[in-house]
Amino acid sequence: MRRRRLTRLLALRELRLPAAALGGTALGGALFLAGYGLLADAAWAATALAGLVPALREMAATIRARRPGVDVVAVLAIAGALALGETLAAAVIGVMLATGQALETYAGGRAERELTGLLARAPRLARRIAGDAVEVVPAEAILPGDLLLVATGDTVPVDGAVISGQALLDESALTGESRLVERRTGERVASGAVNAGSPFRLRAVATAAESTYAGVIRLVEAARASRSPMTRLADRYAGLFVPVVLVTAGAAWAWSGDPVRGLAVLVVATPCPLILAAPIAIVAGISRAAGRGVVIKGGGALETLARVRVVFFDKTGTLTAGMPRLERVLAAWGGIDENEALRVAASLAQASGHIMSEALVRAAAERGLPLSLPGETREEPGMGLEGTVEGRRVRLGRLPWACAGEPSPGALRLQRRALRYGGSATFLAIDGHLAAAFALEDPVRPESGRVVRTLRRLGIRETIMLTGDHPGLAEMVGASLGIDRVLAGLTPAEKVEQVAARAGAPAAMVGDGINDAPALAAADAGIAMGARGAAAAAEAADGVIMVDRLDRLVEALLVARAARRIAVESIVLGMGLSFAAMGFAAAGLIPPAAGALLQEGIDVAAILNALRVLGWQPPRPGKAVPPEVFAALLEGHRELAAVAAELRTLAMELDALPPGSLAERAAAAVRRLEATVVPHERLEERDVYPALAAALPGPDPLAAHSRTQAELFRLVRQLERLAADLGAGEGALDPEDIADLRQLLIGIATLLRLNLAQEEDLAALLGWEGAETGAPAPAGAPAR
């Protein structure tokens, strides 16, 4: 409230000068109509002199900066009007200068609203749990590992992981989205988010200075201090404009012999709207991007992004989620249960902020496993974590670390099995004995393919993946997304070389890790994934995507292009109208007083055109889709994804199953599909797809989705018949039957995952921004 009152006072102060100028001009008009001509001239002259002071001050500033401006034209116009007795024209110019300055201040203030709001919401206090007490301390006093209580309405002071409870958060200050998000036990929470639900406990993983919001503040300050090349381009235009104005005014005077014509030319050319409009358009673009969760450091970065034609991508954390997911638990010899192994590992993992530890804690929470509080924990960077869980000595991490020495042949076989299921693995040892392996996979972001396709439609000539990963894995990801070129096995220095070696077009680099920072700095436009990315990457980049969604890259590109296009439009509009008015004034068709009013209109038109950037909105479909349709489309997606994973796991285990249980397992898979997948797909085909098709062009826009469903139903029927045959058979199973069963299981799992991805892409296309999480739309949630 106090800040709001201060804003109002500042706004009133900015209005004082234009109000005084208008009052002085109106007073002169009243005196003139009353027959007091000399007093009217005096009032108008005083008004003109009041407007001359800021013009002289601005002209002196441009001269000191060796940056030519049009303020000299304004000074000459006022001085000439007073010298020639055109006091009304001089007063109107004074009003024009005062109102133009006020409008520029208003426009700039409105354009920086999102940036200023980000600064105002910086967290300052934290509730730290010390034993049984809770103490309120400055956010700067929090250290990694501290246990915090985030009460309802509190701003999260530092980056951390949810320890207990379910966090319901308002992340609009970071992402620009008003939709509340849920964070479960083990999931990361960024500083700056506001707790909109019940209190929860948070384990700090960074200091306040190293947390997300501190990085946002640094980025905002850099954005506000930056001077745009478009502004410098406008200054260069002004340097050409001023001599043309002076020559035209002098020629009109010499040709007509009337100095008033030369004065009229000066008046209609004062001031040049490009000086106001171009910076406003650029700042408005930065503001609009911030409102969509992308902080761009300055006008230069915004304009460069608008011209990008080549995009480099890092893989891990950029095209992929960067957040491993537990694919499978492989118990070692010794008889430990898979759930028990995960429970023990996740209990110890609570003490670490490593992304693999978070994946284990999250998987345990999804299975509803109760976790214990670990003790005597110690983390060895790059190796793993050790501590005590329920009196047992536990190690979690790389295989040599877990084995405390050279792995045995059996441990190496377990490692090979784990790596078949996932791209990476971590291992658990209990009391010195290897107990289990956890296969982890970094899934491709659901929106990544759509982003690559959209960039191609927007005129991006080439997309290139730069990664240090194994070429086979990188090629698989690149092929699935339609990336033009994949360069794998690169060091950070080699990434820089590839970015620097581009030819012919400005290039953007998108990354998130510390090893991406040099390439981000080398690119024309570096964009960091800042929601969970490294601080070094954010510092090196020209812009940071604060929400954990790659498709905001497309929005940032569209905003940048819109801001640059509108800035150029405003320059052309203002200069074109000014040149036309100068021609009429030189011909004696526009007197000085009318010319001053005309130029005021030109200025206002150029500035209002620049402010159109603030109204930019992401592309959306022609027809709105009701939120209940989104809810029906996405309902049950997590369960269906789990069914697909179960089918794929069963297909991999067929050879190891006892012959007597194989038929029962196949029948159980059929029952699972009939209970979950088939009703879901039938309901969608009957009720949901027609509602979605109404928002899309074409006679049958969802034909591909329907064909996928039809093929899915066909395979389920084949599996049902095969399971019946296996159940009725006698004696040894035919190897061909087992091969057919494996093929059907993998085919159904693949089609099911494809169908879910298609539906989530469709939901995102039609405006539901929760589609990437697979979460159903809450009742009454608006489509954007």
UniProtKB/TrEMBL annotation:
Hemerythrin-like domain segment(s): 632-761
Q: How does it sit in the membrane?
A: Multi-pass membrane protein
Q: Which domain of life is it from?
A: Bacteria
- What are the P-type ATPase A domain coordinates in residue numbering? 122-221
Task: List where in the cell it is found.
Answer: Cell membrane; Membrane
Alphabetized InterPro entries for the sequence: ATPase_P-typ_cyto_dom_N, ATPase_P-typ_P_site, ATPase_P-typ_TM_dom_sf, ATPase_P-typ_transduc_dom_A_sf, ATPase_P-type_domA, Cation_Transport_ATPase_IB, HAD-like_sf, HAD_sf
Q: Please list every transmembrane segment annotated in the UniProt record, as residue ranges.
A: 74-98, 237-256, 262-286, 571-590
Alphabetized Gene3D superfamilies for the sequence: Calcium-transporting ATPase, cytoplasmic domain N, Calcium-transporting ATPase, cytoplasmic transduction domain A, HAD superfamily/HAD-like, nmb1532 protein domain like
Q: Which UniProt keywords apply?
A: ATP-binding, Cell membrane, Membrane, Metal-binding, Nucleotide-binding, Translocase, Transmembrane, Transmembrane helix
**Where is the major localization of this protein?**
membrane
Q: Spell out the family assignment given in the record's similarity comment.
A: Belongs to the cation transport ATPase (P-type) (TC 3.A.3) family. Type IB subfamily.
| Name of the protein described by the UniProt record | Heavy metal translocating P-type ATPase
